[in-house]
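Hi F.,

I've been meaning to write this up properly since the lab meeting, where we talked about keeping a consistent format for the predictions we share between groups. The idea is simple: the sequence comes first, exactly as it goes in, then the structure tokens exactly as they come out, then a line or two of notes. No screenshots and no reformatting. I'm using this chain as the first example so we have something concrete to point to.
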Amino acid sequence: MPRFHVMSDLHREEGYDFPPATADIDGLIIAGDTQDNIEWLAECRAFYGPELPILTVPGNHEHYDSSVEEIERACDTAWKKHQIHILRAGSPPVIIRGTRFIGATLWTDFKLTGNQVLSVHECRTIRDFRYSRYQGRLLRPNDVIRFHERDSNHIDRSLSQAHPGPTVVVTHFMPIPEAIAPIYKGDPAKPFFCSDMRGLIAEFEPDAWIFGHTHTPYDGLSIASKKTRFICNPRGRLNEGVQFDPEKILET
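Output, unedited:
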């Protein structure tokens, strides 16, 4: 049975190194926010060696002190330069030992609470709108909404294609509200962290959905499906006390 090492939110800008890979795995999945900017790709390949398959999606922090366009250019050359698979809108699925991987950053539609206009207002001070750029200006909430539509449509189209083996979706942003930590259930900024993708999940029931963004680990199900396993294994920031599992494995 194929085995994949799962992690996210490594935040190497805090001074961390990469966690060692678990033995006897068929691939490594990093669900975004590895480091501010995307200059970590070469270091990642050097750390894990030339043979291990590595899949990732850009997180929102990859766009800090950078631009959407710069990150897109880095993604365009990630395989040629570093042999790292970056899942994003428009990219083909990656198949490793029969398991199909589909993914993208996902971003957010700000609709989690049912009031998109209010949620955009509540999230206006999020750092992304001060530290990330797009089209020569600061990133805006409406940009994020368009990116979410693009990414969710990509995942929908990809899942609609038949595949004889297991399918795993990888995103950075959270796809189910069940994964929101109890202390953040009432946080007005939670629509920036999670979009409710349960309709799509109920329709296609992928075998697993790996995500990050939240620094609260999650390994469980959703009311959307009794089949799909949801995994978030973030390392988080220094002094956060996150219960990171350095040997988290998904078997497909």
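Notes:
The helical segments are 41-48, 68-76, 78-82, 116-122, 128-131, 141-159, 198-204.
The chain has a mean pLDDT of 95.

If this format works for you, I'll send the rest the same way.

G.
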